Amino acid sequence: MLKRSISLLICALMLFGLAACGGKTPASSEPLSEPTDSTVPEVPTSDISDPTQEPSSTDGTSDTTNNSGTTAGTTTKAPPKNNTTTPTSKTDPTDPVTPAKVVQSLNNTYYKLTVEKKLTVGYIGGSVTVGIGASNEDQTSWRALTTQWLKKTYPSATIQEGNAAIGSSGSLLGACRVGDELLKTYKPDLIFAEYAINDHYQGCLYEESVRNMESFVRIVLKNNPNTDIVFVYTTDCGFRGKEFDAVLAFETVAKRYGLYSINVGKELASREGDDALSFAGKYLKDSVHPNDAGHAKYASYVTEFLADQFKKCEKSYQPHSIPAASRNDLFEKTTLISGNDILASNSSLQSSGDLNTIRGTVRLSGGDAFTVKFKGKALAMRWRSAEGADITLRLDKKDSTLPIGNLDGAQQILFSNLSNGEHTLQVINKGSKDCYINGLYALE
Asked: What is the pTM assigned to this prediction?
């Protein structure tokens, strides 16, 4: 009798377990549905042979979410020669993050498109957003295709594009440049920011990416709190859509400010399979830059997201909430000391043409030096140098021990926690090879 009772108890427990396992798990993200409205055209795919779309995932959910549960992405420092990245994390970012009380919407963008019928969409990021890998950066890149979709979908609206993307730029340079080279120049209503993969390539730590992107967001919203911001994450042949530190950092910021993010890299991997992201394969021209087919896929995920969100939007226009800063090392204002500014006060130096700056580049040959004055609580520099350049920094007549590496397109905060008031910086090349200074940024 006892054995029979035990057997009955075990069976009951097994049935309970099966019932529990069969329970439906709530989806962590909103479905990414294709536009069903006949007025929403597909993204142009040029001469791509396979324009069809696979389902976003086996359970019908999407990795494009609003940050009451956002998703992952990617950025760009100059890619290593053999870019077969193993997804690893240098940190364990487990600090609790309080989501924004009010999740931001795209209502303002929708209002501009449908009521004011006038929209400026701004793009800022690295070489993938420039359009490297596309046969025509201004026609077949994900950026260009996204703008084309907006124009075709809302033909009665006047839609302008502001492109401030430059290659090899990470979130630090993005935060330094966004005010002067995107906000002031174009006054965008909607901003797509793509920096994650470059933050990884440049070795940014999780906390550095959080600082940079939160500064970026605050600069944008303090300039115009009605601006909509969307983070875009790309991938490479090593990660193949998997998350890494920069993505986790950006998601921390997105969650805190209630922003949207679109992980186009993860979408591509989940829909097309890992093999589609092989080096110079079906969708990549090299290790990280999409070809026309890859750019078209990225654009299709962005425009699917927009179409889905616009269906939920209201025709209202109001400022986004700006929560308190999460840390004391953020900056909300940047002042560029350009190459032209440096040349103007150091006439013995030579200028150098550079495609990645619009304000001049200084060539600092061996033995050359320059001096600048600035005000701010921190100072960042953007430069590139060949092996053999030996850069010494002297702040307020004191030599710095900060190592300056030989990098192509490097961005680095040189000094932080500075006292209020004017400071004097001297930059000296004691080496035998040239160093090229693209500019300095005083951070406040």
From this structure: 0.78
